[in-house]
Amino acid sequence: DQQVKQNSPSLSVQEGRISILNCDYTNSMFDYFLWYKKYPAEGPTFLISISSIKDKNEDGRFTVFLNKSAKHLSLHIVPSQPGDSAVYFCAAMASNTGKLIFGQGTTLQVKP
Amino acid sequence: IAGITQAPTSQILAAGRRMTLRCTQDMRHNAMYWYRQDLGLGLRLIHYSNTAGTTGKGEVPDGYSVSRANTDDFPLTLASAVPSQTSVYFCASSDISGRAYNEQFFGPGTRLTVL
C-alpha cells in the first residue's frame, strides 16, 4: 500500500524548458512534504519542502505546489539545466510520527 | 566536512552470513534512520532511533536489527543475510529536538549484494 506515489518513472526535457514532477499521496494526516534529489552513487539531498498550511513554496529555480484537496504536489524546475538530471524523490510526513514516507522516485533527464 | 559516513561502500555477502553496516554522524543529531532503496519502491524505512538508547521499527524491519549506544553511531545488522536483502542501504540523521518538521541528511549509501 503505497501512501506516496510518483507515477512517472522517468521524464525527459530539453535544457531551458520547464520540468514538472508529480507526486500523489493518500494519507490525509500528512502535513509536511519534501523533495529530495539523488545523483548516482550518492545519498539523497534535500531540495525543497512545503508545509500543509501553504500551497506554494519557491526557492530559486525550484517551486513546489501543494493541492491538498487533490492530495497532489508537484515540483517545477525552471529553467531546467543538464545538472538537474537526477532521481527526484517526493516524501511526506505526519508531524506526530516524525517519519518520512518516500515515493518511488522519478528519473529526470535534461538534454542539452 | 561534517556529515554522515557509511561503511563499507559496497559488499558481496554469502547467504546466511552475518553483516553489520556502519553509520556515523558528526552533526550531533538526535535522530537516526536506516532506509533501503529498491528500484520501483523508493526508499523504505527499516529502523529508526529518536535518541541514544532508543530504537523503533520502520516499514520493513524483519531480518534487521539496530542499536544506538551513543549519539553518533547507528549500526544496522543482518543476522543471517538472504538474497532479498540485496539493496542499497542509506543511513540518515536529523535534529528533531523541539521541531515538528525535520529535514533528514543522508549518507552516501552501502550497496549490498547477497548471493
Task: Report on the architecture of this protein.
The complex is a heterodimer of chains A (112) and B (115). Chain A has strands at 4-5, 10-14, 19-25, 32-38, 45-51, 56-59, 62-67, 72-77, 86-93, 100-102, 106-111. The model of chain A has no long low-confidence stretch (mean pLDDT 95). By secondary structure, chain A is mostly beta strands. Chain A is globular and about 40 Å long. Chain A has one domain: Immunoglobulin-like. In chain A, strands 2, 4, 5, 9, 10 and 11 form a six-stranded mixed β-sheet that branches. In chain A, strands 1-3-8-7-6 form a five-stranded antiparallel β-sheet, with no helix packed on it. With 115 residues, chain B is mainly β. Chain B has one domain: Sandwich (Immunoglobulin-like). Chain B has strands at 4-7, 10-13, 19-25, 31-38, 42-49, 56-57, 64-66, 76-78, 87-94, 105-106, 110-114. In chain B, a hairpin with a 6-residue loop joins β5 and β6. The termini of chain B are far apart. Classes of the chains: A mainly beta (112), B mainly beta (115). The interface between A and B is medium-sized, with 26 and 25 residues.
Give the end-to-end Cα distance of chain B, rounded to a whole number of Å.
35 Å
CATH architecture of chain B: Sandwich
Helix content of chain B: under 10%
Radius of gyration of chain A: 13 Å
The helix tally of chain A amounts to 0
Count the beta strands of chain B. Answer: 11
User: Any idea how many domains of chain A?
Assistant: 1
Overall geometric form of chain B? globular
Largest interface: A-B, 26 and 25 residues
Shape of chain A: globular
Largest sheet of chain A: 6 strands, mixed
